[in-house]
Amino acid sequence: MNHLDGNALAGAFAETLGFDITAATGRCAGCRRVFELANTRSFVTAMGKVMRCRHCDSVLAVIVSNRQETLVNLSGLSYLTMPRP
Question: N or C: which end of the chain has fewer CB atoms below 10 A?
Answer without folding.
Answer: C
